[in-house]
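Thread title: Can someone regenerate the structure for this chain?

I was given the following input by a collaborator and told the matching structure tokens would be attached. They weren't. Posting the sequence so someone can regenerate them.
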Amino acid sequence: MNWLDNGDVLANIGEFLAEDIGRGDITTQSTVDPNVRGRGKFLAKEYLVICGIEVAEAVFFNLDAESMEIETSFNEGDEVEEGTVFATLIGAADVLLTGERVALNLLQRMSGVATLTRQYVKAVEGTGAQIVDTRKTTPGLRLLEKYAVTVGGGKNHRMGLDDGVLIKDNHITLAGGITEAVSAAKERVGHLHKIEVEITNWAQLREAITAGADIVMLDNQSPDEAAKLVEMSRNLNPAVLIEASGGMELDRVRSYAEAGVDLISVGRLTHSAKAVDISFKIQTI
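Best answer:
Regenerated them for you:
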């Protein structure tokens, strides 16, 4: 399913526009004849993975659903080089000007997340490990940023706190221990929910698996330490999934994949992805 077919994902476009336009685009209104039509071209000014064409289109259609036309031969997830015009919008020139900044902000942000994700995915190719995101997203943009991760080839971790059980250090402390936390979760959540436990050493790993955890998260381990914990986990219960997390720099993520983990969660996919450079040039037609 394309997430963008879900109206909830694009429901905030009107709010984004209202924040930027306020009482009206006074510059455009005072300088551009409303009868003029224009053609706006999205130009990649660096290598990038395209993500957000439909979102950018929705910005302009929100302003004028009648006269807008989009032309593109590219798909979400396509890689393009610097200098590539990857989409063109045709419509009222004043609408193109008014929607330009919001459309670019979203397109640059989403393409930035997809581009960084693609780099991580390529870095672990052939290992069997999957790159997953986290909840470290921009408030209000989580669905779009997580969609961008999938466009880049990554997978989604929890969408929110209601999406799964992830017992971390503070939960363990407040519950009285790993066994107590896992037991309490098993009693209170539905049978379809997986239970994941964050661990930092062999004793915690053993306790989590013995208590019935479905997934263990190896937090802030070196690649060598991770490899040892993976071997121990496989010996205890080969069905338990193993996730590595914490400080996953691009230049060393493959070493964690080669340690044998199933999942590598990377917060920087969404909290530190650089917005890519895209321009939107408009000409009259």
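The chain has a mean pLDDT of 95.
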